[in-house]
Amino acid sequence: KAGVTQTPRYLIKTRGQQVTLSCSPISGHRSVSWYQQTPGQGLQFLFEYFSETQRNKGNFPGRFSGRQFSNSRSEMNVSTLELGDSALYLCASSGDSANTGELFFGEGSRLTVL
Amino acid sequence: KQEVTQIPAALSVPEGENLVLNCSFTDSAIYNLQWFRQDPGKGLTSLLLIQSSQREQTSGRLNASLDKSSGRSTLYIAASQPGDSATYLCAVKPGNTPLVFGKGTRLSVIA
């Protein structure tokens, strides 16, 4: 069974640009969560989707947005990039509709903003 | 607000030693607790999941315990190996809200 797949793995952007990251969950999983990881702040929750509906949202500015498609694949978008957006963006999926099950993470997308 | 603390932030041990990593959380009202491993520049690998009704879980050389009332969990690693070197993260599920992570313990096992 394939794990959580994130693309692209690495990308470099400049300030002011926008970026879209993609996440394909484990087959059969309908819950997808996104996290930002930086050395200073650790892992911070961005948002969570279940069956195309946003179920939870973290404390990030409106420049950060996401969506989930009918096949459970998810994308997140960051507009007007800032230097501080440089981070590892991690996607996780869960097969538990009650949101109490085990979370499985992808390898992440490493974003560098110059 | 739930907070998760992991002490120490870094730990270095000789190969073969048994070791314990600690995790504490401020609110005992949790659904579950999960331990993860992260290698440099990589994603998180789930090690063990303990439901709130459980006291411990075991997988190979790993054993995780949970004491909800005191807000503590430990991850026991037996007979440590250099391949165990990584950052270990603890996360709690506080109800129908996202996982709350600790900052992790960076483990180095010296051959």
Characterization of the model:
The complex is a heterodimer of chains A (114) and B (111). Chain A is built from no helices and 11 strands. In chain A, strand 7 and strand 8 (74-78) form a beta hairpin. Chain A has 114 residues and is mainly β. Chain B is built from no helices and 11 strands. In chain B, a hairpin with a 4-residue loop joins strand 7 and strand 8. In chain B, 36% of the residues are buried. In chain B, the strands form 2 sheets. In chain B, strands 2, 4, 5, 9, 10 and 11 form a 6-stranded mixed beta sheet that branches. A 5-stranded antiparallel beta sheet of chain B has the order 1-3-8-7-6, with no helix packed on it. Chain B is mostly beta strands. Chains A and B meet through strand 5, strand 9 and strand 10 of A and strand 4, strand 5 and strand 9 of B.
List keywords for this structure.
heterodimer, A: 114 residues, mainly beta, seven-stranded mixed β-sheet, 11 strands, 53% strand, globular, B: 111 residues, six-stranded mixed β-sheet, five-stranded antiparallel β-sheet, 0% helix
